[in-house]
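Handoff note, outgoing to incoming analyst
You'll be picking up this chain. Sequence as last confirmed:
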Amino acid sequence: MSSVAVVFTGGTISMRHDPVAGGNVPVLSGADLLATVPGLDEIATIIPIDHGLTPASHFQFPDLFDIWARVTGALASDEVVGAVIVQGTDTIEETAFFFDLLHTGPKPVVVTGAMRSASAPDYDGPANLRDAVRAAAAPELADAGVVVVLAGSIEPADDVIKTHASSFETFRSLNTGSLGRVEGERVRVVRARGPRRHVAATKAAERVRLVVATVAADGVEIDALRAIGADGFVVAATGGGNTSPLILAAAERAMADGLPVVLTTRSPAGEATAAYAFPGGGATWVRAGAMLSGHLGGPKARVALALGLGAGLDRAGLAALLADPVTRS
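Most recent structure output, in case you need it:
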C-alpha cells in the first residue's frame, strides 16, 4: 500500500471549546486527529508529522518554509506518493499558494482543515482529513501541484479563495473552477490543472505591503509604509485596476525609490488591466511602471512578490512570475 505523509500544524481542526478561555483553542495532536478517522489506513499508510498547534492567522513566512521543509523531506521517499498539510482555514488561500510556488515534481500536496471545532456537533475535520488523504494518494492528481480539499471539493492553489467566513462550502476557485471532487472512495478530476507558477526561493521578503483602494482613499498608507521601510507594494485596485490619482502618485514615489509595485483588483475574481486611461486608471499605472498580476488577487500577489524578491528576481523575472502562466511568453 502507498504511503501519504500528513503534516499537522494546528488550526480549527485541532481545536476544542475551552470554557475558561471562552472559545476554541488548539489541543488535538496529530495522533488525536488520526484517531477520529477510523479506516484511514485502508486508504494509505499514514506517516504522521506533528508540527505544532499554530492558528493559521499566526503564520509568518519562516513558519511556512519550515512546514514546507517537512513536506519535501517526506516526499523525497519513494514510498510516499503524496502529502497532506493540516492547518487552519483562515489563510489557506495564501499558504497553499506559497507551497504551490515552491513545489516541484509530480506528487500531489493537499492542504486541508476544518470549519468547525471538534466540540461542534457538525465537526467536519474527520471527513476533510479522510478526503485529503484520498486525494493525496490519487494518481489522478499527479502533476496537479498543491490543491485545497474541504467539503469534498478539489481546488487549485493559485485560484482558490475563502468566500465565506464560516460556510462549509467556503472554498471556491472563481476564475478557473474546481479541479474535481472527492466522492466517497472516488477522486473525480474534471479538468487538468494546467501550467503553474514556480519560484526557487529559500526566503521571502518580509515587508511586502498590501494596500486596498477604497472610495476617498488618498495614498497616505503607501507613503507611511514606505517611510518606515517596505520591500514592495501590492495595490488591490477597484474594478479592473483603477484608483484615485492620489494613490497612483504615492505608488510612483515608491517606484522612484526602486520599490516594485504590483497592481491587482480587489474584486474576488477577474484581473486588473490597462483598459482605462483616465488619471488613476489601469493604463496609467502600467505606464508608470506597475506590474500586473494576472488573476492573482491581493493576498496571493503579495505572496508571489515576496517569494520572487526573496529569490532575487529582477523586474522582468518578477513580472513573469506574477503573470498568468497561460499568457506568459
